[in-house]
Amino acid sequence: MREISSAQDLVDSLTNAGDKLVVVDFFSPGCGGCKALHPKICQLAEQNPDVQFLQVNYEEHKSMCYSLGVHVLPFFRFYRGAHGRVCSFSCTNATIKKFRDALAKHSPDRCSLRPTKGLEEKELVALAANKELDFSYTPKAVPVEEEAPVPASNPVPHPSMSANDEKTLVSAGR
């Protein structure tokens, strides 16, 4: 397991993971549930070497956690390639099955032809808006498609209608 050092480190780690499943563990050293669950999470990390496990220390990165909407601990987010976040949940020793089930569901090897997604756009914007973090992000411009103008001067007659049928429809307001 690798501890995240900054918002930029988290973004880079998710972006560079490719199609690999990434589990982000949000924890606090003073959290009893986090301490109790930690050995089991480490064991699952060892049993799943193809999964990248990252840790975010809530006490050191409160501002980042707040920007990402993490308000309960321990908290986990699973990310995979072009899919971005595939699930997120809180978990304790009593509900470790939830973690194992999510790991089993999202672990199968898959390959995506699309680019790695990482954090969602709104999460990146929230991190960048947080003045306590040393993180900058420029939102992606959304291309706007212009509709081609339809010429009104030459209406195209329907192939199955005669000129009289078309006049009838026009006069009926259809």
Automatic annotation (TrEMBL):
Tell me the superkingdom of the source. Eukaryota
Q: Matching InterPro entries, A to Z?
A: Thioredoxin-like_sf (IPR036249), Thioredoxin_domain (IPR013766)
Where does the chain cross the membrane? none
A single GO cellular-component term on record = chloroplast
GO BP terms, alphabetized = cell redox homeostasis
Q: Which SUPFAM superfamilies match?
A: Thioredoxin-like
- Domain Thioredoxin positions: 1-108
Q: Where is this region: Disordered?
A: 146-174
The record's keywords, sorted A to Z, are: Disulfide bond, Electron transport, Redox-active center, Transport
Q: Which family does it belong to?
A: Belongs to the thioredoxin family.
Name assigned to this protein: Thioredoxin-like 1-1, chloroplastic isoform X2
